[in-house]
Amino acid sequence: MKKVLGLSIVFASLLMLFSCGNPVESAQKDMKAAVEKMVVVVKDGTVKVKSVTAASEIAGAINATTDEAKKCISNYNAVIEKNQITPEQQIKIEENIKATMTDKFNTVNEFQKAIGDSIISLSTNQAGIAEVQNALENSKSVLNF
After folding, report:
1. Number of folded domains in the chain?
2. Which of 34, 35, 135, 138 could pair covalently with 76 via S-S, beta carbons 3.0-4.6 A apart?
3. Within a domain: residue 6?
4. Residue partners of 80: CB distance under 8 A and separation at least 6
């Protein structure tokens, strides 16, 4: 009876170990999801920036996009912290989700290009240009994490 009970405990322990999954794989999935969400947010922001013409609306679209992207970045960083991902593991994960990271990079570049185009369209409105440029600087510091 003791032998069966001992084997049952060992088997249950092994089952729990394998059912919990690898924390790095789990983190990779969650990190990828956070970056994918950020891509969606920034793409939506790009559409909004392109669709408005007033400086305050452009700046508002930039700021709203940046605020939403901050949440995605916070989620990304929380996954790293929660799973105690080392810098080496983070590099490996980012290599594994390279396509998603490249999509993020390209999407952020498109967003910043749309902002640049909007600044050009405001060429006679110096106050508007300054407002949009301030929003752009804030955006750059956040989105290039």
Report:
1. 1
2. 34
3. no
4. 27, 31, 90
Domain span at residue 76 reads: 23-143
Cβ neighbours of residue 69 closer than 8 Å, sequence gap 6 or more: 38, 41, 42, 45, 142, 143
Q: Would residue 5 count as lying in a domain?
A: no
Alpha-carbon torsion, ordered 75, 68, 66, 124, to 10 deg = 170
Cα angle at 73 between 37 and 99, to 5 degrees?
55
pTM of the prediction? 0.79
Q: Is residue 4 part of a domain?
A: no
Q: Measured between alpha carbons, how far is 55 from 59 in angstroms, rounded to an integer?
A: 6
Residue with tokens 């060429």: 123
The closest of 32, 20, 21, 18 to 93, measured between CA atoms, is 32
pLDDT digits (tens, 9 = 90+) for 79-137: 999 999 999 999 999 999 999 999 999 999 999 999 999 999 998 888 989 999 999 89
Residue 17 falls within a domain, yes or no?
Answer: no
Q: Which of 40, 67, 41 is nearest to 139 (CA)?
A: 67
Query: Other CB atoms closer than 10 Å to residue 136's CB: what's the count?
Result: 20
| Residue 14 tokens, joined | 């092994």
